[in-house]
Amino acid sequence: MRPGLLGVLLAASLAWSAPAWADDLDRHIRDLQLNALSGERAPGFSLARVDGSGKTSLAEQQGKVVLVYFWATWCGYCRKELPVAIEKIVRERRGQPFTVLAVSIEEPRDLVASYVKGAGLTSSVLLDGDGAVAREYRVRATPTTVVIGRDGRLVARAAGTREWDGRAGRAFLDALVAAPAK
After folding, report:
1. What confidence tens digit (pLDDT) does each residue in 3-17 have?
2. d(CA 54, CA 64)
3. In this structure, are residues 88 and 67 in contact, taking their beta carbons and an 8 Å threshold?
4. Are strands 124-128 and 144-148 parallel, antiparallel or unpaired?
């Protein structure tokens, strides 16, 4: 390699910086006290919608940030967070490459449907009747949230509630939405 070319390549590599969304992602993960995940491809699933209108699959969400929210009607924390904070981000992010899949774990359709109607939920509520998807995602507590990037890779997870609709939550989701889908 010629000396001049090496200098140009070195200067170019030093001048390159990661995009803003990537620079901030680690900080947002720390701010929300999330567990960063490996970046491996998220395990696929297809689950029945609580409204009986068919199934929703993770593969259909390609190109979107997906917040998979594992919950149950008996979970007091879920009953507070899902209809308020989670619904708020669903409404605020309409039209963006973002979706929430609220996965009810091991509960009958009629019980979940009654709760969804009473709480006025508009997010996609799915039924994991036998708990297989929850086991695949190693859910040990409710709520557990798994965040999947636009590229279909695992980004972070949280057991327990988080301020998804607060400043730190918004900044984290903004950074992920800004990231390119690969």
Report:
1. 443 333 333 333 334
2. 20
3. no
4. unpaired
